[in-house]
Automatic annotation (TrEMBL):
Polysaccharide biosynthesis domain span: 1-121
PANTHER family in alphabetical order: PROTEIN PBDC1
Gene Ontology CC annotations of this record: cytoplasm
Pfam family, one: PBDC1
Identification of the protein by name: Polysaccharide biosynthesis domain-containing protein
Native source species: Ceutorhynchus assimilis
Length: 134
């Protein structure tokens, strides 16, 4: 059940990314706080490509755990499994999708949106125009 929910969330989010300017997109009411604390804790993390083995290393888990716990009572389902695109320039595909907590997803995607990383998606994955039937 959680896998279906995670997949549906990913599909909806990607469709939104391809439809609106990511810089104006708000993922939660707490976007400003999430982004501020994320960049304070992870100032040099390059959000363009997230390497799963690095993200889930013992060292990184030790940094992420306290970050995530700050949002226990702030973000609903903060620890829920959520799908993240590893390479921000690509769509959700099996080889480009990793499982993260919801707050990790929000932190990385808010940074991608605010820092212009997701800007090219609208042109790259623009929906095909529907031809009218005569």
């Amino acid at each position: 059940m959680w896998a279906m929910r995670a997949y549906e969330h990913a599909e909806i989010y990607f469709n939104i990314l391809c439809s609106v300017d990511p810089k104006i997109l708000r993922l939660t009411p707490e976007d400003d706080l999430i982004y501020k604390l994320f960049r304070e804790e992870f100032p040099s993390l390059d959000v363009r490509v997230i390497i799963e083995n690095e993200l889930k290393s013992t060292r990184e888990k030790a940094k992420w755990r306290p970050f995530c716990e700050k949002f226990r009572n702030v973000v609903e389902d903060y620890s829920y499994g959520t799908l993240l695109r590893s390479d921000a320039s690509k769509d959700y595909k099996e080889d480009n999708t990793i499982l993260v907590t919801r707050i990790q997803f929000f932190a990385i995607e808010i940074a991608r949106n605010r820092e212009g990383v997701n800007d090219s998606l609208r042109k790259k994955f623009e929906p095909e125009p529907v031809e009218e039937q005569q």
